[in-house]
Amino acid sequence: MTQSRTRISKAVIPAAGLGTRFLPATKATPKEMLPVVDKPAIQYVVEEAVTAGLSDVLMITGRNKRPLEDHFDRNYELEEALTRKGDETRLARVQESSDLATMHYVRQGDPKGLGHAVLCAAPHVGDQPFAVLLGDDLIDARDPLLARMVDIQERHGGSVIALMEVDPAQVHLYGCAAVKPTVDDDVVQVTGLVEKPDPADAPSNYAVIGRYVLDPAIFGVLRETEPGRGGEIQLTDALQALASSPDLGGPVHGVVFKGRRYDTGDRGDYLRAIVRLACEREDLGPEFRDWLRSYVTEEM
Ligand code: UTP
Predict the structure, then answer these.
(1) Would you say residue 149 lies in a domain?
(2) Residue 31 in contact with residue 19, Cβ under 8 Å?
(3) How far is the CA of 228 from the centre of ligand 1 (A)?
(4) 248 and 276 fall within a common domain
């Protein structure tokens, strides 16, 4: 009898980091709530999970993160005011985020690292594979990545990470993977991982970006993972343990992403994301592009 597998349905979004690169904006506001044009960055991430078929979303939050919960909840006062005014367009925009997914929240307490944040999801996730989407990594909706990762996980089992080729001089900013090719051009087998290596020690220029589909065996490994770089429990260290001992929880594969991605936790990339997405918007784009063109010509 063939064993039927449950399709992956749970997404975990760690959003408990301190966002120190964006201070003072993030002193009392989560960085995930910073707007990218007119939507908070986190809404793009939840939309991406839902588009890939993952409508059960667990957000890992912490102190100062209440606005995240409020954003995905109803706001009756605002809805009533807009209904009274007959402003259906804005009413629909307000309701969009609360109708999007089934949202759950757990607090991390102390932000002891991404690995620790993922471990906080263990009771909710149980023993099925699940996806992790970093709240400050934005993948352009026109370049779907997560659905491909879910397919690869369902085909090979184990865990799947997202990789992007970067300039070797930039590799020290990322987790970095040692890889072997597979029959699929966009898929590699991951044989090792190292967090933020010196360029001279980097096994490749394949950088780990913020999307993962993980075997639940990761939880057992994370419980045993000692704090690593920066005194934090690193997800990369736990994935390295899985990659080097497939008996623990199956192989680790990487899907190589060549699409558009913005690290909205980084100020420069955040600005680039806003400019690019605003230029491409049908409602704002034409006027904004004209302004941008003359600004660049006249001011720079
Ligand atoms: P970052 O490395 O971007 O850290 O975390 P940060 O604290 O959010 O931002 P900076 O560097 O101080 O500006 C990557 C992701 O992991 C989450 C963050 O919220 C972000 O989505 N994270 C990190 C947690 O949820 N908990 C942690 O303890 C650490």
Answers:
(1) yes
(2) yes
(3) 15
(4) no
Ligand 1 centre to CA of 100 (Å) is: 24
Nearest atom within ligand 1 for CA of residue 108: 26
Q: Does residue 132 carry a pLDDT above 50?
A: yes
Least confident range from 63-67, 115-119, 145-149, 171-175: namely 63-67
Q: Which helix (H) or strand (E) holds 297?
A: helix 285-299
Distance between CA atoms of 100 and 95, rounded to whole angstroms? Answer: 9
Pair 144, 28 in one domain: yes
Per-residue pLDDT, averaged over 106-110, amounts to 92
pLDDT tens digit sequence for 216-269: 999 999 999 988 878 889 999 999 999 998 888 879 999 999 999 999 889 999
174 and 275 inside one domain: no
| Residue 132 within any structural domain of the chain | yes
Instruction: Tell whether 53 is covered by a domain.
Output: yes
Considering the entire predicted model, what is its pTM?
A: 0.94
- Measured from the Cα of 111, ligand 1's closest atom is 28
Q: Measuring from atom 9 of ligand 1, which residue has the nearest CA?
A: 19
Residues with CB under 6 A from ligand 1: 14-21, 60, 108, 111-114, 116-117, 134-136, 265
- Closest ligand 1 atom number to CA of residue 14: 25
Q: Is the dihedral of CA 59, 127, 52, 185 positive or negative?
A: positive
Q: Which is higher by pLDDT, 4 or 285?
A: 285
Task: Name the residue range of residue 50's domain.
Answer: 10-265
The residue-averaged pLDDT of 125-154 equals: 94
Q: Whose CA is nearest to atom 4 of ligand 1?
A: 17
Nearest ligand 1 atom, CA 137: 21
Concatenated DSSP letters of 56-113: EEEEEE-TT-HHHHHHTS--HHHHHHHHHHT-HHHHHHHHHHHHSSEEEEEE-SS---
Pairing, β 39-40 against β 35-36: antiparallel
Domain count, the chain: 2
